[in-house]
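[step 3/7] fold_predict: job queued, chain A
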Amino acid sequence: FGFSFVAVVPQFETRCSYVKATLEEFLAWSCGQPSCLSGPFSCYEYSKYWAYADYKYIATMFEEKPEIFQDIRWSDFGFPGRSGKESTLWIGSEGANTPCHLDSYGCNLVLQVQGRKRWHLFPPGDTSFLYPTRIPYEESSIFSKVNIANPDLKRFPEFRNTTAYVVTLSPGQVLLVPRHWWHYVESIDPITVSINSWIELDADHEARVEEAITRMLVCAIKSAENPSDGDLWLNPTEVEATSHEINLQYLNKAVSAYFKCQKASESEQA
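[step 4/7] structure written:
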């Protein structure tokens, strides 16, 4: 849950509230039904909050009904062999938004199923104008310190130099988010449903080395901090800090994969 008012600071997941509920309870809440007065949404007045469920793997949710996620054929867009099996489901209410960020890996295909979402896209060349940060830490996500919906231009004056490409995605439409493009996404209808799939690219091998180093540094610094400060460091989707040995193994694998890819590329060119 996030607040419906527009703050100057981005609403990172570390600042949001979390409840466990069924889809039926969520729909009842979004329609303002009286049954919500005693359910998991009882503390959250619809006019004051938005709700968002993200990173739900559709294959896990519909394990008993595989035909549902198999119906999603990304092969129609030039990616043979990909279906809903690797895809995630996103459900939100009006006003729900994701802070502006870029994904370290791959490109992103997004299918809008219900409701509309407004996408604010910024090219990789605008990175320095968006004041990137790794806190809160989430593997493969680099966040912007700027709240795109309400930018603080005194604190972030370079944001004026950005070039935003604003796209409203309607049901049935598919958006391709190119590699390393920044995006801020907001739901503009009462209920929004979308499905996405991240497509791996050869350049991801280098990005995995960078992410492995970042993870090692974050875990090292975090281990020296007060444990109670953890919520400010890690996004709820991120696991707790791992051991140095495990992080070294992760880095070694990433470096090995990178060199293997480089050798394969050189052989192809030869």
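[step 5/7] annotate
Residues 52-199 form a domain with the Jelly Rolls fold (CATH 2.60.120.10).
The chain has a mean pLDDT of 88.
exit 0
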